[in-house]
Design goal:
The protein has about 100 residues and is mostly beta strands. The protein has a domain of about 60 residues. It contains 2 helices and 2 strands, in the order ααββ. The longest helix is centred in the middle third of the chain and has 5 residues. The termini are far apart.
Length: about 100
């Protein structure tokens, strides 16, 4: 008896992983950004997130906010996908 050490997939007997799902994606709505400023910068906003949308982009940026802020966002995306975001950041005390 001869035994082959080549994997079965290497011989083309099994379908390649992902080929049956080519061209599809799921949960792409999670890539929708928040805030006009951040979206207009194509998401390159993480390092300078200093408004109420920082709760989405970079929560560490909340310490830079010196006043109460509210952000409300609504996006009509692709077919029947509406995306709403509401964020409120209270003023942090100066004694931290």
């Amino acid at each position: 008896m001869l035994f082959s050490t080549r994997p079965v997939d290497g011989q083309g007997l099994l379908p390649r992983l992902g080929e049956q799902r080519a061209g599809t994606a799921s949960m792409t709505f999670l890539k929708i950004g928040v805030g006009a400023r951040a979206v207009s910068m194509a998401g390159a906003y993480v390092a300078m997130a200093n408004d109420a949308s920082a709760t989405y982009w970079n929560p560490a940026g909340l310490v830079q906010i010196g006043r109460n802020e509210l952000v409300v966002s609504h996006s009509d995306w692709l077919v029947d996908v509406d995306y709403e975001y509401l964020g409120y950041v209270p003023q942090l005390t100066r004694n931290l």
